[in-house]
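User: I'm writing a short report section on ligand binding and want a predicted complex to refer to. Could you take this sequence and manganese (II) ion and write out the structure as tokens? A short remark afterwards would be nice.
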Amino acid sequence: MSLVRFVHAADIHLDSPLKGLEKYESAPVDRIREATRVAFKNLIIFCLEEKVDLLLISGDLFDGDLKDFKAGLFLTDQLKRLSNAQIPTVIIRGNHDAEAKMTKKIHWPTLVHELNVKKPASIKFENLGIAVHGQGYAERDIYDDISQAYPEPVAGLFNIGMLHTALQGRDGHAAYAPTSVDKLRSKGYDYWALGHVHKREVVDTNPPIIFPGNIQGRHAKEIGPKGVTLVTIEDGQIESITEHFLDVVRWDHCHVDLADASNESEVYNAIRKVINESEERAEGRLLACRLTLLGATELHADIVSRQEEWAYGIRAEMTDSDGDIWIEKIRFKTQAKVDIEQLRTQDNPLGGVLRKLEQLKASNEDRADLLNCLTTINGKLPPQYKQWTDALNLNDPAQLDELLDGITQSIIPKLLQDAGES
Ligand SMILES: [Mn+2]
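Assistant: Sure. The structure tokens for the complex follow:
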């Protein structure tokens, strides 16, 4: 009986910067900056400790061209540890580290194999009973299905295909090297080691077609545990496929319903409960948490009028002594505890404004006008604003709805107050 194990990783995005990090309040800048490197070290340690036989990295090892040679040295030093332990590594380039984008040559250690970017290639590890097939990206924009030219499977070996692809399209990921499950299956391989999609996904099981996801979340849109896939082959057959987490900063979204909160300390308690649960899931990692406050609450008017003070109070109350919790952003989405339908029918300024907003939301013509205005404003914003991970996406109708609902909720308290005073 022979047991062979390989690790399938992808999308390391070494030194990926969190754009605008220093603008965030009290951000643990250094720990977040270093996160992709520390996670990569964790990957090397994992391979060494588990004594695996092979490491595959399915594209986007680098986030982009290296800023300096230090990054290159860090990488070769780490991979050399695997070479010294006789563990080979196979790498393909993805859209982020396509050959044309990288100006600095990397001196790969002896047992690191980079697959060709011009045509598909194969590497046979006869001692492991494994053949690896794949092709890297010569340029960023690959719109052909390169997988279909991959070599025929090698008889008698366990055949793995490495491919950086969006398959038939994945939300938030450019549609590079498109292909389908059926097409991949038709190649007759035993495992498809995919990369590009940052959220882990077992696309199919026969044969396994897997995106392991990235090994470290890079911002608040990449939440939850991040890691690699470990595959065990016994006598040429898959014995097990397991997931192992390597991330050091855990991103999460915490939603807190404040419907039952009627004072400050009840708000803090409700938030603390949700953050504590998230902190437990992070298992000692730095928790970077985006907080959303929801619910129809009697505190809504106060929250709307003193948002900055509330934000400060929440941050001050939630920060723990060892600094392992960082609230990345607080989204105020509470609602007034009022009957909007009823207010909307009233014959007063508030009723009029609410009706106008409702009409704006429902009318295609009004929406188009509003979008025109917003597009003009958007065009005048500095570019760094548009690169923010949660910059307004004007092509998304749901975001416009959310924007209008937010406006509605923030003006209700003010107009109610004015109505009361008059
Ligand atoms: Mn990619």
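A remark for your report: The chain has three domains: 3-245, 249-337, 344-422. The chain has a mean pLDDT of 92.
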